[in-house]
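COMPLEX REQUEST
Ligand: protoporphyrin IX containing FE
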Amino acid sequence: MGGFLNSTIARKFAMALSGLFLVLFLAQHFTINLTSVFSKDVFNELSHFMGTNFFVQALLQPVLIFGVIFHFVMGFILEAKNRGARDVKYVKYNGNSNSSWMSRNMIYSGLVVLAFLGLHFYDFWFPEMVHKYVESHPEDAARYYNELVVKFESPVRTGLYVLSFVFLALHLYHGFSSSFQSIGWRNKYAKGLRGFTQAYAIIIPLGFIFIALFHYINNL
Ligand code: HEM
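STATUS: Structure written out below.
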């Protein structure tokens, strides 16, 4: 594995695959969270299923956590290598003419998303793990909705979430579309796919912003 991941192309490939996997997770995560806006019961039911299903807990969740860690560790490594390469004088940097602002700042938008995940895990994931596996409370299928909405009582936390989703959009706007290039996807569908990835990069974070603001306003 170490040897394989030693070339820039292999690293970009691995970065793209892990990114695509996280994009899939995001669609699933968004769909479940969106139900909290329409139906308390549906959200509770889906959350209870995800939180107690053996396949989800024992297989999908560890793969997801590995995917998140892998993606950001590889991101730091790629950035460090790119910086090293930029020090070589013949690589001409031309500002806007050969790369977009978003593509040059993936590390910064990624760092904001990483900081958000720190807060987000503190808010939801750690309490959930403690609740289930440390304190071993009896199952309560109706608790998820209330645990979610109290988090959006705070204007500061809601603001931080919304700001993070703007950076998530910037990160996805370049990352999602370039991931197909990195895995060598070049055919007649490439242009349509680019449109789809860019729409996804805007619509999903906007949807997350909507969910956060909905619960904040509902709590007033
Ligand atoms: C309004 C927006 C969001 C809400 C309400 C929300 C809600 C939640 C909740 C309730 C959980 C706990 C699930 C559990 O019981 O384990 C969770 C976990 C998680 N969320 Fe979010 N989330 C939001 C946005 C996001 C975004 C934008 C990302 C990624 C950039 C994200 C990444 C994660 C991850 C990685 C986990 C851990 C998944 C697990 O292993 O259970 N979330 N979120």
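REMARKS: Residues 4-219 form a domain with the 3 helical TM bundles of succinate and fumarate reductases fold (CATH 1.20.1300). Helices lie at 8-38, 40-52, 54-86, 101-104, 106-134, 144-150, 155-182, 190-219.
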